[in-house]
Every structure is written in structure tokens, then in C-alpha cells.
Amino acid sequence: MSGRTERRAGRRINAYVLAADPWWLEDSVESYYDLVGRIVVSYDEDGRSWTGTPLPVEECLDRLRAIDRDGKLDFRPGRFFHSERTALENDTAQRQIALDQASDGADWVIQLDTDEVVLDAGALLDAIDEAEVRGCDAVEYPARYLYARSPSGWMLESTRALWRRRAGYPGPVVIRPHVTLVHCRQAALPMLRVDMSPTNTDPAHARDVVVHRVVRPDQAILHYSWVRDDEYMVRKAAWSGHSDTYTSWLKDWRWRTRHPVLAVAIGWARRDHSWYRPAHLGPGRHRWRGES
Which structural domains are found in the chain, ordered by start? Predict the structure, then answer.
């Protein structure tokens, strides 16, 4: 890893993080901390979410300070709840401000949510290399979505039919500085598309969409979208830009958490064709919050 980083010594990479959700915060930031020169920490100084509900901002800031061993964090407060906007409009506006702040002195900006963990930083750097060569302005990198954690520690990973790997793309995870975001972290740019197969694995995109680069599943991003305890999922449903969707899905999430084997087995029978496979990350890796 260090050799790869040294080979790219002339490339300036910054990042921004939205300090709102502490659950996987340290795992996320530490997964790319060594790649970047500066991390803008954008937070609401009133402790309010995009929907106006309270956020655990101070907890996030304390946890970030505790892992900032090289003094890379650049704290940038603001007020990001505006009642005349929708939650997703507030989301986009905060990200745009954070991206602009992180763009100063950067060739690229990493934009990951705090429940997204980079499994192979070197593979992500290789993708940035290829984006440079191809003249792309952003990198779409595959995320494996984890939707529940059973009492035994197994997690449920979202898949395509018949339990085939599925990539998710909420937006480019690496982007050129000073670009304009159009929706959350999405932008209308020439993108390098990375997948876990030479052919598209994301049902939300056309089957023939071009895949420029292939990585292994263990080189993807892990997105712990729904992997929290019940109390935090309820809180996340209230503050998320997708709060209406989260609230309606909580009942299904609780059922999957209690019955993971059934959730894996009956994807074919569900009207929404929700397929899941068991995922186990092994002891000591991305610990459940509160475990030693």
C-alpha cells in the first residue's frame, strides 16, 4: 500500500465527510485517511438534520477528533436545514458546500458517506489512475449494500436474482474539484465506471452500460446502509434525506433482522424480488458498535 501511495505522491486528493451519523464513522474515515491530505468535516452548527430533526453532531465530532492522528481534519460548520427546501435539496446543498471547501488544493475529492468503507484503498487509487488516463471527471465505484445484521453476527447483502453479486452506485465516490452536484452527490460528468464483473451488475442501470474496470468483491466498498441497532435505525429514518423511504421500510428491516435465513431463502417469492445472501466479515473486522 505504501508503495502505491508513494507512486502517486504528486496527486493531491482531499475528501469531505458529513458529520451526522456516528455508527460506522471511524471505520469509514480510517479506510481512506492515508490517501488524502485534508478532510473537510461539514456539520450543522445547530445540530439539525436536513429534515430539521436533532443530530448527534457532537458525538461525531468527538469520534473524529479521536482518530485524527495526523491533523488532517478541517472542521467547517454551517446551517444546512432550510424549511423551504426538501430534505434532498438540503442534502445536495450541504454536499456542494463541502465539495467546494474540499476542492481547494485538490486534483480529486473523495465523497463517501460515513457508513461506506473502502475495502482496498490501492484498488480505488488504481481506478483514479485510469480515470486520469481516460479523461474522466469522476469515478463510479461499486458498493456492496448490507441491509441487516442478525443476532449471530451475519449480515444480509443485497444481490441480484439467484444470489448473484450486485453493485450499487449512489453517486461517484471520487470527483473532480469545483464541479456542480445535481442531486445529492451525483453529477453530470464523464465517469469511469467500475464493477465487480465485465458486464453491469446493477439492476438500476441498463444491461449494456459500459464497464471500464473490474474489481473483486473484496475490493469494493461496503455500504452499511441498514446495519445499526433498532434505536439508531429509527433515528436515521427521521434525519435522512430519504426519511420517507426509511420509515416505510423499517417493518421489513425488522423482520429480516429476526429471520435472516428466511430472508435469504424467499427472494424469489417476494413481490419486490428482494434477494439477499449471508455475508460474514470475520472476527475483528468492522466491529459492531459497542463491541470490544
Answer: 9-279 (3.90.550)
DSSP-derived letter for residue 137 is S
Q: Estimate to the nearest angstrom the gap between the alpha carbon of 253 and the chain centroid.
A: 19
Task: Give me the residue label for grid cell 442501470.
Answer: 205
Each of the 292 residues of the chain gets a pLDDT tens digit; together they read: 443 444 455 789 999 999 999 999 999 999 999 999 999 999 999 999 999 999 999 999 999 999 999 999 999 999 999 999 999 999 999 999 999 999 999 999 999 999 999 999 999 999 999 999 999 999 999 999 998 887 777 899 999 988 999 999 999 999 999 999 999 999 999 999 999 999 999 998 888 999 999 999 999 999 998 898 888 888 777 766 666 676 677 888 888 888 888 889 887 776 666 899 998 765 444 555 545 4
For residue 152, what are the contacts with CB-CB under 8 A and spacing of at least 6?
A: none
Cβ atoms of 73 and 109 closer than 8 Å: no
Indicate the pairing of strand 38-44 with strand 13-18: parallel
Q: What is the dihedral of CA 125, 131, 136, 139, to 10 degrees?
A: -40
Residue 21 CB-density burial (10 A; 0-12 exposed, 13-18 middle, 19+ buried): buried
220: left (phi over 0), alpha (psi -120 to 50) or beta: beta
What span, in angstroms and rounded, lies between the C-alpha atoms of 190 and 96? 18
Amino acid at 192: L
C-alpha–C-alpha distance, residues 125 and 30, integer Å: 15
